[in-house]
Specification:
This protein is an alpha+beta fold and 290 residues long.
Length: 290
């Protein structure tokens, strides 16, 4: 007959096993939901992508063109990034070059999460220039893992080698002077405190008390602007808010406007991956006071 202590240990082990199993099932469900969301968008570059999308017939993987669970570039500004960004980080001309007189606040060189977006959208390299290609034998720290396999691409705005063509509005190129400013201080600057309380230098933006918020998440200071009418919770950082990114400006670390401030690459609930609907200029009016 087993002792009470032995039974107690067995019961505890069983409970732990049940808990771990529940967590694994929950994680699997979340993962499946995420893949399902991306699978139905133009960011599904694998063979399961919709007809007419830019896609390759050589792999059915969806996430691999941006992320890898192993051997990712840890210096990249996006998690588990599967591209080498060092070769494309220079040579950009930004909006501020042509229209500096219309901008309040400092503008930094192209970087942060925007450089990750531009690793496809600047048209300088194939979309299959990835570090860790599907399967074995496709690892290359320079980002040539898939290129050596001669993937074949099809789609209305990509050539057979997987490079975006200038005929596509999604191919931004290196000249960003006709695109919304990125790497720019939100609201002209004035926001560097952990809790934004100071006035925006440009009062045509929503500042503290009217939408601008900050919080510390995983020991990192983050900012966002609450959007309205998008199903989010006021004062809570949601995917439907305008997300701002921490960058080091001369006056101190502060919120920066980047590509992913307005676009969420993982869901296309709204056209062009916008975080909120732009009906009635909803995206613009999420930050701008007009």
């Amino acid at each position: 007959m087993q002792s009470k202590s032995t039974i107690s240990k067995l019961t505890g082990s069983l409970l732990k096993l049940v808990a771990v199993s529940a967590l694994m099932l929950g994680a699997a469900g979340i993962s499946q939901q995420a893949v399902a969301g991306i699978a139905n968008t133009k960011h599904n570059l694998g063979s399961t992508g919709a007809a007419g999308n830019n896609k390759t017939s050589d792999t059915g993987e969806i996430c691999v063109f941006c992320h890898t669970p192993h051997a990712a570039d840890t210096t990249a500004p996006a998690p588990l990034w599967n591209k080498n960004l060092s070769s494309i980080a220079t040579g950009f001309t930004t909006y501020s070059t042509a229209s500096s007189s219309t901008i309040d606040g400092e503008v930094l060189a192209v970087g942060s999460v925007s450089i990750a977006c531009l690793s496809c959208h600047d048209g300088s390299q194939a979309m299959d220039n990835i570090i860790n290609a599907p399967g074995s034998g496709g690892y290359d720290t320079t980002g040539g893992g898939a290129n050596g396999r001669a993937y074949t691409w099809s789609g209305s705005s990509v050539n057979a080698q997987g490079v975006m063509q200038s005929s596509s509005i999604a191919m931004l190129g290196k000249d960003l002077t006709n695109d919304h400013p990125i790497g720019i201080q939100y609201c002209g600057g004035g926001q560097t405190a952990a809790t934004p309380t100071g006035a925006c230098k440009d009062t045509d933006f929503k500042g503290p008390g009217s939408g601008l918020n900050s919080a510390t998440i995983n020991s990192q200071l983050v900012w966002w602007v609450d959007s309205t009418g998008a199903g989010g919770t006021a004062g809570s950082r949601d995917k439907t808010d305008m997300i701002l990114y921490s960058r080091a400006f001369a006056a101190g670390t502060g919120p920066s406007v980047e590509c992913a401030s307005c676009h969420d690459p993982h869901t296309e609930t709204n056209p062009t991956f916008l975080r909120v609907s732009n009906v009635g200029s909803g995206v613009c009016l999420s930050c701008h006071v007009k």
